[in-house]
Design goal:
Layout lengths: L4 E7 L6 E7 L2 E5 L1 E3 L12 H6 L5 E4 H6 L3 H4 L5 H5 L5 E4 L2 H6 L2 E5 L4 E4 L6 E4 L1 H11 L3 E3 L11 H25 L5 E6 L5 H12 L5 E4 L8 H11 L9 E3 L5 H9 L4 E3 L2 H7 L2 E4 L2 E4 L19 H5 L2 H9 L4 H26 L3 H10 L6 H8 L2
């Protein structure tokens, strides 16, 4: 019997938004949830203890990168990624398919799997569906992802159709390996592909639902397509997925994206935006984003966001953070990342509370009003909320 269980605990009466909870070997997670990205076994510049202070419930690790460095031979010495990085909460690992597509050199996709040349040392590797599951079992993931065939945007219909068909065949092999080798002590999610074609998305969903995965992810979004197209694909695909299973939008997104996608019924998200943008001087606030390098912050004695309760906002001013950034002091990365992660997790927690209290409409109205009403009217009409 699987140690992963998901249940819905509340629903918005005026939209598709829902709150839930899932249980794993390493603890429970309340949804909707945002997962900070810890590509190489670390959320850049933050310790696991600081992540806990930000109320992080689950983090994401990257199979491709951890397979190449430090390798399973090292991680096995620690009985998995949790002990290796000193994180005792749940971990989701992606399959490595996107990184093979985006980072590796001389990639060749065949029925067997993805043959690629490492971006680090040039050595060739073969990542099969079976190998992707085995590596994630080595990592000790609480949630693993099937290997999928990622394609570029824009892609022709034939290419998208071939990629989804291969993704579905790979998913069958992933599930077989997971069932034989995992003891079902964790969960394996299938990944919906199909490019920007609704009929292909539906075909992909149907093929994966037949395999009855513990959860489902929507892949191939936020890969350069227009925002409206991304929302259209999510809007179409989310209702097709089983209502009783968690629904994960991969690689998304901005705070506005999260609000719109929770509104449509999405449960899980990951994105490098809060960490990467922090290192580039962009900070998130209830009123939108600010660039800490702007001259207007040079003499500003106030915090990043007066409404924020994070460690950075309690102790440091915009002027100090700007000074750190302009002088390239390493501390700015930690303080800025701490704030951005705290902001994202506070935002997702506020959404959950609004769903539980059946006031998601009120939450959205307040969220957009602080951004001068941006997108609220159109989104309100679209979702009849």
């Amino acid at each position: 019997m699987s140690m992963f269980n998901f249940k819905i605990t509340a629903r918005s009466k005026s939209s598709g938004a829902r709150a839930g909870i899932f249980e794993t070997r390493h603890g429970t997670v309340e949804t909707p949830i945002f997962m900070p990205v810890g590509t190489l076994g670390t959320v850049k510049s933050l310790s696991p203890e600081e992540l806990k202070e930000c109320n992080t419930q689950i983090i994401l690790g990257n199979t491709y990168h951890l397979y190449l460095r430090p390798g399973c031979d090292v991680i096995e010495k620690f009985s998995g990624l949790h002990r290796f990085m000193n994180w005792n909460g749940p971990i989701l690992t992606d399959s490595g398919g996107f990184q093979v597509f985006s980072l590796a050199k001389l990639t060749k996709i065949t029925e067997e799997g993805a043959s690629f040349q490492s971006h680090i040392d040039g050595y060739r590797h073969m990542l099969t569906p079976e190998k992707a599951v085995e590596v994630q079992l080595c990592l000790g993931s609480d949630i693993m992802m099937c290997l999928d065939n990622c394609i570029a945007y824009p892609a022709g219909e034939k290419d998208a159709e071939d990629a989804l068909a291969l993704t579905t065949r790979w998913a069958k092999r992933c599930k077989k390996t997971w069932e034989e080798k995992s003891g079902k002590e964790n969960a394996l999610f299938g990944i919906v592909q199909g490019g920007m074609y609704t009929h292909l998305r539906e075909r992909s969903v149907n093929g994966l639902v037949e395999l009855d995965f513990p959860g489902y992810a929507i892949g191939g979004l936020s890969v350069g397509e227009p925002k409206d197209t991304m929302l259209e694909m999510a809007d179409f695909t989310l209702p097709l997925l089983p209502d009783s299973k968690p629904k994960y939008i991969m690689g998304v997104g901005t705070p506005e994206d999260l609000v719109k996608l929770v509104d449509r019924g999405a449960d899980m998200f990951d994105c490098v935006m809060p960490t990467r943008n922090a290192r580039n001087g962009q900070l998130f606030t209830q009123n939108g984003t600010i660039n800490i390098t702007n001259a207007c912050h040079k003499y500003d004695t106030g915090p990043i966001d007066p409404s924020c309760t994070c460690y950075t906002c309690k102790h440091y001013s915009r002027a100090y953070l700007r000074h750190l950034y302009m002088t390239r002091e390493l501390l700015v990365h930690r303080l800025s990342t701490y704030h951005n992660i705290h902001y994202y997790l506070s935002l997702i927690r506020q959404m959950r509370e609004a769903i539980v209290n059946n006031d998601f409409h009120g939450f959205k109205k307040d969220f957009y009003s602080k951004r001068e009403g941006k997108s609220f009217q159109n989104d309100h009409k679209k979702n009849n909320d």
